[in-house]
């Protein structure tokens, strides 16, 4: 073991933690904790974001150096996902009130499940700070379990599945895709939509990145932006707020359009909704921009190419296609913690749907295979964002 490295990491952690502490103290902010009243989303201000990231990265490396290769490998918590699924299935977070104590027996009886199973599930969850056993057999909520009990979007996120033509369909004993399955079950579609809304609450997925780094400012007044698979229209509303002279059309499948929540009234003049299946020809001809946010990573190449080919007849000289998705980095070029997150997402897409995340070369190749007239413009990768802004222009 390189002794200098662990000392170097520990020193950097100590120095950076001192800076965070001094920032918190001088701004009258309390220190981080797992207490039930802790805000669920970490409210560290942006000015110390880079210092916090440096501590987390050094901390990860230090832990893994001390664990060594084998323990780092087997540390991976495969069963954690089963545990999360069981919490959802048995509604355990809602089986006792926030702020009160309960025994495993009481919780088991409230969720109609065996006490032994409840105890085993909850004790694994506790290793991730979900619930706390204050005395043997007696538990209370923590900040995370409180959010599971109270925030419907978070609860649904735990139980969410992504589009699939393989595992998900198999598990549902059907050859329908996930979206077809959802189309037949409005309650389930709503749960998925809530889960997506929760997923978007993370700072690395803020819509600001798309607003600040997309081509919106260079579009002519009155130019149309079509958000294909745009769900409830949040992206369009965020862009409309800063670029009010543009016109926005949100397209999605009928059940999603039907179940959407109303947008703020002040955007009704410029944001409209329409039913459209992106596997059929695009009905809005010659828009300035067609946006795909978090669409292509749900589909294998073959299907992405079908989606793009259905867009082609609507494109006119200079139309742009903007993709807001992960752009996988070259190996070892970004912090390990972030790279791990992006690559874990890629594997999740593979195992669930035969889909994938893509790197820059794969994005360019995908569009060229759909049609040679798609010309790559650029990838903008905001440092704090998980999603890049990838732009293509149509040239006859
Ligand atoms: C992962 S969500 C992304 C939603 C939105 N673009 C965002 O960034 O929040 C994928 C969206 O694609 C929509 N979708 C799936 N299949 C579709 C299809 N064939 N035609 C149109 N939309 C579809 C889903 O209803 C869902 O809203």
From TrEMBL:
Protein name: O-methyltransferase
GO molecular function: O-methyltransferase activity
Keyword S-adenosyl-L-methionine: yes
Transferase in keyword set: yes
Organism encoding this protein: Talaromyces pinophilus (Penicillium pinophilum)
Higher taxonomy: Eukaryota, Fungi, Dikarya, Ascomycota, Pezizomycotina
InterPro entries: COMT-like, COMT_C, COMT_dimerisation, SAM-dependent_MTases_sf, WH-like_DNA-bd_sf, WH_DNA-bd_sf
Record-linked PROSITE patterns: SAM_OMT_II (PS51683)
Residue ranges constituting the O-methyltransferase dimerisation domain according to the UniProt record: 82-150
């Amino acid at each position: 073991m390189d002794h200098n490295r662990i000392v170097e990491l520990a020193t950097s952690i100590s120095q950076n933690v001192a800076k965070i502490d001094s920032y918190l103290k001088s701004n009258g902010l309390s220190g981080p904790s797992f207490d039930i009243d802790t805000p669920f989303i970490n409210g560290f201000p942006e000015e110390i974001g880079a210092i916090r990231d440096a501590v987390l990265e050094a901390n990860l490396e230090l832990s893994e150096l001390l664990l060594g290769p084998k323990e780092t490998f087997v540390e991976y918590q495969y069963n954690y996902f089963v545990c999360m699924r069981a919490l959802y299935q048995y509604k355990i977070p809602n089986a006792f009130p926030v702020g009160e104590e309960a025994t495993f027996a009481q919780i088991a009886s409230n969720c109609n499940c065996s006490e032994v199973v409840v105890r085993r599930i909850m004790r694994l969850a506790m290793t991730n700070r979900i619930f706390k056993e204050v005395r043997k057999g007696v538990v209370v909520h923590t900040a995370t379990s409180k959010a599971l009990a109270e925030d419907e979007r978070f609860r649904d996120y735990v139980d969410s599945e992504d589009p699939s033509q393989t595992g998900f369909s198999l598990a549902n004993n059907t050859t329908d895709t996930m979206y077809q399955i959802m189309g037949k079950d409005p309650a389930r579609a709503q749960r998925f939509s809530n889960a997506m809304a929760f997923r978007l609450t993370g700072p690395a997925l803020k819509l600001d990145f798309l607003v600040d780094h997309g081509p919106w400012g260079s579009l002519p007044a009155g130019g149309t932006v079509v958000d294909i698979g745009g769900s409830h229209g949040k992206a369009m509303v965020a862009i409309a707020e800063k670029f009010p002279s543009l016109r926005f059309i949100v397209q999605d499948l009928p059940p999603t359009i039907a179940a959407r929540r109303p947008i703020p009234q002040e955007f009704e003049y410029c944001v409209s909704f329409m039913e459209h299946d992106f596997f059929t020809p695009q009905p809005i001809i010659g828009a300035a921009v067609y946006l795909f946010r978090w669409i292509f990573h749900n589909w294998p190449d073959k299907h992405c190419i079908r989606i793009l080919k259905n867009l082609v007849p609507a494109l006119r000289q200079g139309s742009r296609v903007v993709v807001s998705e992960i752009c996988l980095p070259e190996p070892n070029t970004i912090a390990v913690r972030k790279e791990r997150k992006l690559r874990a997402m890629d594997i999740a897409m593979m195992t669930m749907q035969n889909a994938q995340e893509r790197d820059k070369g794969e994005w360019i190749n995908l569009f060229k295979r759909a049609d040679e007239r798609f010309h790559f413009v650029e990838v903008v990768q905001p440092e704090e964002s998980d999603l890049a802004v990838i732009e293509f222009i149509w040239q006859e």
